[in-house]
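Course assignment 3, question 2. Fill in each field.
Student: A.L.
Task: Predict the tertiary structure for the chain below.
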Amino acid sequence: MFNLMAKDGIKPNGVSFISVLLSACTHAGLVKVGQRCFLSMIHDFHILSEIEHYGCMVDLLCKAALLQDALQLIEETRMEPNAVIWGALLGGCKLQKNLEIAMIAVDKLMILEPDNSGYYTLLVNTSSKTCVNTPVGLITIEIKY
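Answer field:
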C-alpha cells in the first residue's frame, strides 16, 4: 500500500507511517523494514517523529526480543517518554521474560503514574515466569508500602 501511495505521488504523513508501516511491520515481525521506514520518515520525508512513532518502534523491537534496543531508543528520544512508552517496554519484558529491564520500566512508570499498581502486578507476573530465584516477595512488599 505504501508503495502504491508513492507510485501515485501521494506524500505520506506521520499517520501514514504509524498505520501503514510501523504497525504493519510490527505485526509482520519486519524489524529491519520498520527501522528503515522510521529513519526514512525522518530523513527522507522530513517528518518529525512523535511519541506515537516511538511507541510503534518500541513495540516492534520488543516483539522481536530486542529489549535492550528498545530501552536504548527510549533513552535517546528527543522527548520525554510517557507511560504508554514505558508500558510498551514493560509488556515486551513480560513477553520476553526479562525481569531486569522490566524493573527499569516499572521504576519509570511509578514516577509517571504512582497510583497505578497494575504495573507492579505485571512485574510480579514477569518475575514468576522467569523461572529463576527472584525475590517476588520483595516486590509484593514494595507494593504494600
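Instructor remarks: The chain has a mean pLDDT of 85. The CA atoms of residues 40 and 46 lie 8 Å apart.
Grade: pending
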